[in-house]
Amino acid sequence: MKSTLSFSRGLQKFPLIGALFAQIISLIFIKIFIQAFHYNLPIIEFAFIQAAGSAVITQTIFKLPKWFLYISILFPIFLIMGFHYFHISSWIYGFIFLFLALTFSHTLKERVPLYLTNKKTHDALKKILAENKAKTFVDLGSGLGGVVRAMSETKVTSVGVETAPLLWSISSLASFITFKGNILRQNIWNTKLDEYDVVYAFLSPAIMNKLYLKVKSEMKTGNLFVSNSFEVEGVEPSEIWQLDDDRQTMLYFYRI
Predict the structure, then answer these.
(1) pTM, whole model, 2 decimals?
(2) What is the mean pLDDT of residues 10-35?
(3) CB under 8 Å to 112, separation ≥6 — which residues?
């Protein structure tokens, strides 16, 4: 029992591996069922049963983040249907896999999906920088760099950090072309925060408490940490803003 729990906790640290294991386990059980009962399972039923099985394993046994549930459901359906009904060439799947690997490689280790910040949040952040008379700003996990470029318009020193190769390449090129901001290819945990007046993050609830410990230990007293959508568990925010956008974005402020 203890070994099972340890295995499950290990997969929670590397959720993409857990999602892959869920697909494999589901496939094994389906194959055993088919062979044991000599059941001729139509391909479309196979796809949906595979999706359902992997989804159950993902959520109830491995207890992976909720967004992996959608991956578990959609992946086998698109893969099987693509091969069987649409005769999609295998090289296309190879290209898609390479694209996803270059875009979401950080997700494997850091458990942080790609979230994009909208324009209304950009405007709110600009207001925050002005109110705090900030001179330096950093976006932890800057993705495509939209926040970094937008904040540079306020004349602050605007920096983003990103590890995914494709996202870093695109965002750093965009910053170079537009002369807006600077994107560093480095891990958020290796980023020194003491030089920034405002630190912004739109990451994942899975790492918020660990990130807050880093923020508290490195940021200067009086400076501001802003989290988009995700609270730090057990820590009362200094202030909360709810934005008037489509997703009713919540910004959580933590004054250090």
Answers:
(1) 0.66
(2) 78
(3) 106, 141, 203, 204, 206, 207
